[in-house]
Amino acid sequence: MAPPATYTLTSPPTPALTPPAGVIPNFEQPYTLLPYTIVTISEAIIVTTILVLARIYVKVFVVKKLLLEDYTCILGWLAYLVFVSLELHSASYYGAGTHMWNLSQETVSRNQHLANIADMHVCIAYGCIKVSLFLLISRIFLGVKRNILFWINQLFLWANAIYYTIALFINIFACRPRRKIWNADVPGKCFNTKMLYESAASFNTIGDVVSRFRMISPPLTHFNQLDIRCPLLCLMFRFKLLGRVEAT
């Protein structure tokens, strides 16, 4: 006589976050922002890749000379591709863009691990891209005369380089031991990463405003020195330049 069949009941996974009142966790088919994430990241990869490859083509085959800002641009682009690829992988398999009460603690832990690696690459990407921008401004508009605009440009160039280097190492050594970054149950100590993210948001906002101002001020400074008796044309040029910068 065959032995009786046995059944094992598996308890449902523990949600990574307590759901709101009246909400039942859905681990099978939860609502997710994955379709929007795929579209957004795909557009970002296509646009940035086309622009960077166009720049490389011109510098290699037309100008036939690569400068420091070109190398930092390429490095920033490669780091950015790694960053968005990790974000897409995290959204596809580890619940990025999904309510945390619809995710298990194990899934969120893997998500945080990938997020930490992505944060390292975004520091490299942002730092290299902004350094490349300030180098380009310095070479085109400020390379001859070392006036106050030149030294302001140098100040923000080095400020960005130092800030993102520090941010990179903070992301690497955010916790001791490192696995505590994605596993809060591991005993150890961590930096205040919330303060890092808040300072990064402020620094990026200030840096973007300064970058736009730096792209506007050198051309306008030289334009005002021209002997042109057409105030209306000058005014139109200013608004056109401002609009193009804001569009970027």
Helix-strand sequence: HHHHEEHH
- Helical proportion, percent range: 55-70%
Radius of gyration: 25 Å
Q: Please count the helical segments.
A: 6
The fraction of residues assigned to DSSP E strands is under 5%
Low-pLDDT residue spans: 239-248
User: What would you call the shape?
Assistant: elongated
N→C terminal distance: 77 Å
Mean pLDDT: 80
Biggest sheet strand order reads: 1-2
Number of strands: 2
Structural class: mainly alpha
Main beta-sheet strand count, sense and barrel state: 2 strands, antiparallel
Question: What is shown here, in short?
Answer:
The chain is mainly α. The chain is 67% helix and 2% strand.
Description:
The structure is a single chain. The chain is mostly helical. It contains 6 helices and 2 strands, in the order H-H-H-H-E-E-H-H. Strands 1-2 form a two-stranded antiparallel sheet. Helix 1 packs antiparallel against helix 2 and helix 3 runs antiparallel to helix 4. The radius of gyration is 25 Å and the shape is elongated. The C terminus is likely disordered.
